[in-house]
Amino acid sequence: MAYEERNIWASLIVGIVGTIVYTIILLQAAGGGPVSDVDWVPIMLWMIGASIVGAIVVSILWGIVAGIRHPDEVGTSDQRDRDIARMGNRVGESFLVIAGLGVIVLCMFEVDWFWIANTMYYGFAVSTIVGGIASVIAYRRGLV
Fold first, then answer.
1. Rounded distance between C-alpha atoms, residue 40 and residue 53, angstroms
2. What CA–CA distance (Å, rounded) separates 46 from 40?
3. Assessment of whether the complete model's pTM goes beyond 0.70
4. Burial 42-69 (b: 16+ CB within 10 A, else e)
């Protein structure tokens, strides 16, 4: 598995797990009441930080294991990797644009900050997940 593909997998795994964990913690904090009443800021900030650190740690550990197994492939990337990364970023960024437009609409209607922030948070999460899935598919099937 190429260096870039391992990093994409690490981000994808951590992105999915982080989003699920954030949602569970948020719902548990609501305790059956309205989720907009939850003190969401520390939960979101901790989850963003944990996801960033988690993706780095998973990527490093996976890289160490891969380096032990295949030392000749460590840190190498080629034009195909760059093309796949660009395509995955474009796919993911389209969801960021959609989330950004959603945030603008929510702001126009002066919706509670909880909904605005979570729209953007989940927009980032969906962007990472969908962009990662697109990149993994491109690694497996090739760019068309």
1. 20
2. 10
3. yes
4. ebbeebeeebeebbeebbeebbeebeee
The percentage of residues in the chain with a pLDDT greater than 90, rounded to a whole number, is 79
- Enclosing domain of residue 122: 3-141
Nearest residue to 8 via CA among 71, 88, 87, 65:
88
Rounded to an integer, what distance in angstroms lies between the CA atom of residue 21 and that of residue 42?
Answer: 14
DSSP structure class, residue 109: T
Q: Residues 39, 29: contact at Cβ < 8 Å?
A: yes
Count the domains in the chain. 1
Q: Which two tokens stand for residue 126?
A: 């969906």
pLDDT at 73: 67
